[in-house]
Amino acid sequence: MLKQGALIYQTRCASCHGVHLEGQANWRERGADGRMPAPPHDSSGHTWHHPDDVLIRITNMPAFGDSLSDADIVAVLSWIKSQWAPETRRHHDDINRQAQQQSPR
């Protein structure tokens, strides 16, 4: 799954989000066109601040339409997470646990 996620990320995501997950310059500021630049997915960004269900919804962005399957998205997110430091992964796991406890059953 990680190999598949890395391949999809490099071919579909890296041109905007960076080969090393670094995102675009000034990613917190709207560009002249009113759009936000692509954020980083490394620890300097906010990806790890969101539970998986939010990340899946965000990843299924309009630019891709239906071209990425749910399995593709999970593979990409799994690869991104595999690049995070252990402390960041633990924090993200905590965020997922909290989100699951708060979701209606």
Radius of gyration: 14 Å
- Main sheet overview: none
Which consecutive residue ranges, at least 5 long each, have pLDDT under 50?
Answer: none
* Beta strands, count: 0
* Annotated CATH topology: Cytochrome Bc1 Complex, Chain D, domain 2
Strand content: under 5%
Name of the level-1 CATH class: Mainly Alpha
Sequence of secondary-structure elements: HHHH
Q: How many DSSP H or I helices?
A: 4
Head-to-tail CA distance between termini: 29 Å
Structural class: mainly alpha
CATH level-two architecture = Orthogonal Bundle
**What is the helical fraction, as a range of percent?**
40-55%
The whole-number mean of residue pLDDT values reads: 92
Ordered list of secondary-structure elements with their pairings:
Blueprint: H1 2-17, H2 52-59, H3 70-82, H4 86-102
Describe the structure.
- There is one protein chain.
- The protein is mainly alpha-helical and 105 residues long.
- It has a single domain (2-102), classed as Cytochrome Bc1 Complex, Chain D, domain 2 (Orthogonal Bundle).
- It is built from four helices and no strands.
- The protein has helices at 2-17, 52-59, 70-82, 86-102.
- Helix 2 crosses helix 3 (70-82).
- The longest helix has 17 residues, at 86-102.
